[in-house]
Structure formats: structure tokens, C-alpha cells
Inverse folding.
């Protein structure tokens, strides 16, 4: 079975940093785009960042540009999200996902999803 498992979430003060990881299993995702989404209670799921099978191709939501960095280790079948200068509004459950498209921001284009990791940023 195909699985994506996020880790690295937690509680951090505003201005701090966290590094999320997403380990994939069940198949190799070397030719998929890997994305990060987040969802806060009562809010819609929103795009955060994505990286293509070509690791030089990335995309970011305007709200996180300059603060978050997405990367991947193809050999380890793992994608990362480095989050710096965190703000309370970054508080959400963060999900990773795999898509056949490169760096798409459309949630409907992602075929596989993890179950999420909680990120809480205190003021």
C-alpha cells in the first residue's frame, strides 16, 4: 500500500522554526511532484508549497514566500518543509501529498495524502 507519513510538527513560539518531514512508502515518487497543504479548524485546506520531480522547480503560497523552503531527497523518497519566522497564523495541520503534475497548487491533482502533523505557533 502507498503511504505518506508526516512528522516534525509541534509547538513553537512566534519567530521560531520547525522542519517537517514526509516519508513515502509503497512505491517510488521520484517522478511525482510533492506538495504541502495545511488546514486550520474551520478553514479550507490551502496550498503551502510544492516541489517537482525536477528538484529545481518549486512553488510557494504568497503567505509563506521567503519564510518556508521545500526540498526533497529522491533517494530517500522523502520531502521536507523548513519553516522559519513562524507566525501564529501558520498554526494548522500540515499534510503532504503526491501529484502527477509538477508543483501544482490544485488539491484535486494530488493522488496520495498523508494524515497530517500538527503545527502550533504561540504569540
Amino acid at each position: 500500500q502507498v503511504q505518506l507519513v508526516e512528522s516534525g510538527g509541534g509547538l513553537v513560539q512566534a519567530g521560531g522554526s520547525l522542519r517537517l518531514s514526509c516519508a513515502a512508502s509503497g512505491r517510488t515518487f521520484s517522478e511525482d511532484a510533492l506538495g504541502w497543504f495545511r488546514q486550520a479548524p474551520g478553514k479550507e485546506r490551502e496550498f503551502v508549497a510544492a516541489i517537482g520531480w525536477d528538484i529545481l522547480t518549486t512553488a510557494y503560497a504568497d503567505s509563506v514566500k521567503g519564510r518556508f523552503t521545500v526540498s526533497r531527497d529522491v533517494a530517500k523518497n522523502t520531502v521536507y518543509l523548513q519553516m522559519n519566522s513562524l507566525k501564529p497564523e501558520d498554526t494548522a495541520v500540515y499534510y503532504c501529498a503526491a501529484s502527477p503534475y509538477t508543483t501544482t497548487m490544485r488539491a484535486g491533482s494530488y493522488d496520495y495524502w498523508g494524515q497530517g502533523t500538527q503545527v502550533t505557533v504561540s504569540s
The radius of gyration is 13 Å.
